[in-house]
User: Fold this.
Amino acid sequence: LPVLGYQKGHVDQSFYVGSGDEGWGIEVFPFWPQRISTKAWTSTEAARIAAQYVKSLGITAPKIGLELEFWTANAWQTLRAELPGATFVDSTEVLEELRAAKTPEELDQLRKAAAAIVDSMVATFHWLREGMIETDIVEHLRMEETSRGLDYGFTLIATGPTFGRGPSSRRVGNGEVISIDTGGQWHGYLADMARM
Assistant:
């Protein structure tokens, strides 16, 4: 359970709680919060660490906005037990609206990410031939994406009558439907598309 904490007007008091395997990623792609913990291996630990950060702010009765639909029951119980004087409000709608607002520069980055994904998929579909193996198709798409400057994320593929979406050693037959779902990032902006 990732937790990002921000006290209004005090960006210097911001914190982030991530999982134990996020440390390398934060070293490579630095993140803006001033205090970062990558020691939580469970949602309960994440809630406990977040509560410690909130307590360190010295606020005895904080009002805390959460995206409640993402909090597990055990994390929610832990947070309430650790911060008995706090008032909790569901801020999902407000946070979604804030994330939806984009600057012209951010929109440009999203367009570049989407264009690179589309171009990569089109190139892969043009390259693809009967008898090719799903794993080879996925590898070709990965190379197309990285050659366009994307940080490759994932690819799911389903061919012919199969419903499994993990790449396999299955060969593509003549006239079969091919479904590809892939995602990549352009300077931190994610594009995720599916095409048949």
